[in-house]
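Title: Prediction job returns without error message
Component: structure pipeline
Severity: low
Priority: P3
Assignee: unassigned

Description:
Job completed but the reporter wants confirmation the result is attached to the right record. Sequence as submitted:
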Amino acid sequence: MIKQCKGTGKAIGNGCGNDLRYSERNGIKSYKSKYGLGLYCCYSIWLLSSDQGKKILDNAIVKTQSKRKRLESELKEDRAQEKERKTLGTILKNLMNSCHAFIRLRDKYKPCISCGIPWSSKFQAGHFYKAELFPSIKHNEMNIHGQCVQCNIRKEGNESEYRVNLPKRIGLEAFEELNFLAKQEKRTAFKWDRGELNRLNKYYRTKIKQI
């Protein structure tokens, strides 16, 4: 027995009545064999023509648009964060280059801060308080001095000798101030400030010109 379309889902009872073995739309016959699926022949018409169908269609459109807007918003936020990270990375890199260039010029011809060997053009800008552990004083000129590759790299800063010679290089008062700044960082959460980073970069670029 050939049964007729009764509609599908919420459209049941509002089917087109066509033989389920085929449906005809715009003069084209499409044969179907599964009973009850008005989706093949009249569901879209019901969505567009009935009040209930229009409501379902409108809700589906709103839901789709909402999802799309949320995805677009998340994508926009991700791009903004990526741009912000790149911008901060560029600022930090520029500051590091300016700071280290100044240190090399300032300490030119001075012996290694740790072991005391005579100056070499290969000397590096070595930190007393490690840069990765103390970011707030990473670019503090009191914390950075000309250091040989042996001490800075192979001896990982040669801290014991650095500690002995640093007060002699910068003075006891400045050394105590540096220690105070290092202790303060352990008590507070540190976050980079772009304005301060740009100010420091400008400061070191000016100091380089003055040497």
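Comment from assignee: result matches the submitted record. Residues 80-210 form one domain.
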